Amino acid sequence: DTAVSQTPKYLVTQMGNDKSIKCEQNLGHDTMYWYKQDSKKFLKIMFSYNNKELIINETVPNRFSPKSPDKAHLNLHINSLELGDSAVYFCASSQDRESIGTQYFGPGTRLLVL
Amino acid sequence: EDKVVQSPLSLVVHEGDTVTLNCSYEVTNFRSLLWYKQEKKAPTFLFMLTSSGIEKKSGRLSSILDKKELFSILNITATQTGDSAIYLCAVEASWGNKLVFGAGTILRVKS
User: Fold this and answer.
1) Phi/psi of residue A85, each to 5°?
2) Chain A (52-81) residues lying within 8 Å, Cβ to Cβ, of chain B
3) Please, what are the domains in chain A?
4) What digits encode the pLDDT tens for the residues A87-114?
5) pLDDT tens for residues A45-66?
6) Around B49, how many Cα atoms within 13 Å sit in the side-chain half-sphere?
């Protein structure tokens, strides 16, 4: 059973396109996160949701819009993709905001913008 | 601004060697420090450290935290090729309830 799953695993697209990445967790966790890992392997928090409510929104271009239809899902929509958006995007979840240290990560979505 | 710095950035050793990876941090309202191992895909959890001076151990891996000097080390003894990975250090800053990651140490163990 996959705890945190992401789709798609790979995404290759042209500059200017709009794309979405989906994340689902079946752990019953309240809190979910999106991270971006760039080519230098730096992992940075982008967004965090707790019970469908946005609690962390780091300095991310507003072309990135997260959406949490329910607490088991946190999707990421990206408008007008740019070359610099190429990275691996990881979704993660934790029991609650206090348990941030014990996050479970998804397998990642490798995005390549051409 | 919250900051986590890892060193070295990369390391190549031979099987059987012992390695020490370093992590120093400056964050607001420290809560915990975490070590992760990342192979091909997602980071996997290794240790969470909250108290100074208490060593956490799991097999050949061990880690310790010094909250006065604001750093942690991760030791791996008798390294094996399967230890080759990126080792990530992250610090939980209670303000904002977020994890701040270091850039990672790329470890390669040669047979």
Assistant:
1) -80, -10
2) 55-56, 58
3) 4-113 (2.60.40.10)
4) 999 999 999 888 887 889 999 999 999 9
5) 999 999 888 888 887 889 999 9
6) 28
